[in-house]
Amino acid sequence: MKSIREYKHAQTIALFDTGFTISHVGHQLNISWTCVKNAIKRYCEHGTFKDLSRMGRPSKITPRTAHHLKRLTNGENQANVNIITQKLNDSSTWCVSSRRPPKSPDLNVVGELCGIIDKKLASKPINTKTDSQKRLQEEWDNIPNTLYRALVDSMSERIEKCLKAQEGHFL
C-alpha cells in the first residue's frame, strides 16, 4: 500500500464527508481509490489520520542460534571447562580430564554404519523425498544384528589401535 501524507488523509475524509464518492475523492486528490478507501477505513476504525505503526518481520532465532549467541557473549569457554573439571576432581574419587578427546573417525562406529547405508542407497536411483525416506528405512532394517554386535565388540580393539597410533588414524 502506498503511503500518503497526513494532510491528504484529512482532505480525503473531508471530501468523503461532503458527499464525494471514493473514486471522485481519489480523482480530485490525484491518489488511488484504494488509498482513499484505506484512509476512510483507518479514520473510522482508529479515529486518526496518521499511519499505524507496523510490526515488521519478527526476528527468528532458533535454539541453536540462541545457544551460539550465548557462547559468543559468555566467552572463555575453556576456562569454564577447567573450573568444572577442577571442582569434579576435588569432590570425587575418580579423576576427570579437561583435555578434549580427539575427533577420530576410527572410533566412530555410527559413521561406519552410515557409510554402509550410503553405499546401498547409491546402488539404485532415488527420485523423490518419500522414496528416499522409504529406501533409507528399508536399508536400515536390512542391516543384520550381527554387524551391530561386531562393531560394538571391535571398540576395545579400535581404542588400542588409536592409542598406539598416538591419536593418528589407523584405518
TrEMBL record:
InterPro entries: Homeodomain-like_sf (IPR009057), RNaseH_sf (IPR036397). One of its GO terms (molecular function) is nucleic acid binding. This is Uncharacterized protein. Gene3D superfamilies: Ribonuclease H-like superfamily/Ribonuclease H. It comes from Rotaria sordida.
